[in-house]
Write a structure and sequence with these properties.
By secondary structure, this protein is of the alpha/beta class. It is 48% helix and 11% strand. α11 links the parallel β5 and β6. α8 runs parallel beside α10. The longest helix has 14 residues. It is globular and about 50 Å long.
Length: 314
Amino acid sequence: MVIDIECDIPTRETYEPELESLATQGNAGMANYLNVFGPKWAAEAGMSPEEFEEAKRTEDPVKLRLKITERRMERAMSEADFVAMLKEAGVSKACIGTGRAASLEHTCALAAKYPDLFIPWARISPHEGVDGVRRLERAVKELGLRGLEASTFRERLYANDKKYYPLYTKCVELGIPVRIYTTMNYASDRAMDLGRPIYLDEVARDFPELVIIAGLAGWPWVPELVGLARRHRSVYIDFAAHRPKYLAQPGSGFEMLLQFGNTLLQDRILFASSWMTLGMPMKDIIAETEALPLKDSVRPKWMYRNAAGLLKEG
């Protein structure tokens, strides 16, 4: 059994917001992600390594990312194939809307279509103000939304920015968790530390009833995040977008997460694949996670028990 806290949606609908953003806003800083994840995205788009490197050298990065995204959209997975892939990999529950996602409405509709598999979350911008808070409440009460995704680096706000506080307050009122982007980002047009764990400390102090998932494991500030989780029992950690087999390698920066995740924090580590970002099959990500040097009693906690308790899934 596996519960995935960040399961990317691979259908055509997830590419539409990205295409609109690239076409209308440009966003050269986000185009820098081509330098990190570009080869995998290009391969998914059917580009050879040579074609991709030549395009990087000669084309505008925003236009190149737009072209790759359009090609990936043409090759997008169907809903049926997505469901089949998850079942083949042994995923029993998948949180959608936490990573790559389409609109709130599409995410909730997909979850309603496959209620035994999908758990819908949504990213609602704090810049929407009271409208965003109302949209969150309607989504929970009318569409079955189960959690809020706070993407600090996309919003260009730190987690403790007071613009987020009305959303946090509503999460407490509705009894849903918030998953907060907690790691560095590669967008060259904004601060690197928008996802630094230290900014969650004030949030946890101001909202002691709020369940917080620190997404993406806090690298390169992993010891800081471990300290935060030891300090606040309401803080959970997932390691989405980091290839699992590297977590246990000396010098990776994750040594403290493995140590405490196997001991004092064993009840608050969550599996999260971010499989499209990694460009890996889900089953391979699961296999690498299960191969980590964890105690036999701890491994099932990481893979599903901790998430099942947090999400009240049996």
